[in-house]
Amino acid sequence: MEAKRWLEPFSTDVQADGTLTPERLTGEQRLSHLRAIYEAVPESMPDQVVYRVYSMPVPERASELQTCTTVLEPGTVGREYFMTKGHFHAVRDRSEVYLGLSGEGLLLLATEEGDHRVIEMSKGTVAYVPGGWAHRSANTGSDPLVFFAAYVGDAGHDYATVLERGFPILAVMGDDGPRIVENPRYRVSAA
Ligand code: PAN
Ligand code: ZN
Q1: Distance of CA 86 from the midpoint of ligand 1 (Å)
Q2: Which stretches in the chain have pLDDT values below 50?
Q3: What CA–CA distance (Å, rounded) separates 133 from 51?
């Protein structure tokens, strides 16, 4: 039989809360898995889910687009807002687009040299994440921050670099709203 040349077209419904129909939960991050990204997680904090990712299944190759939604809960650890682990794409030049669906937050971006940017995310924001920029989302609102993402199929995720060096900037709760501050724990690339 002749091998299939093309994938089968398909569609998925994104619900108002960011979940997909049919259900496609692919990742759930609890506070206990995220301790290393915060300055200090108080022992008294419950081990709650900080975010979930729902992904559409396509092969991880450069000819495809990976797509998913992220649902990031509201909350803080100390003064730091709940945030995603953050990553570079393993294939560094692979780009990505985020589309805000609901909630309020900040998309933090940083290069390996320590250059950084901040993009405000809310419903309707289309954020372009070029290759070479690590990206992390922080929920600065009181509702879940929900966004859709599409990225080059073979991008892969390098979490280790951000975990080892930290992110140059942090989104923290100030007296009159969110503030961006330098991250004292950040170690710039030795290169
Ligand atoms: C997003 C992220 C998602 C979760 O889909 O993977 O928001 O963040 P972490 O992967 O940093 O835990 C994306 O940027 N994909 O490439
Ligand atoms: Zn990404």
Answers
A1: 7
A2: none
A3: 21
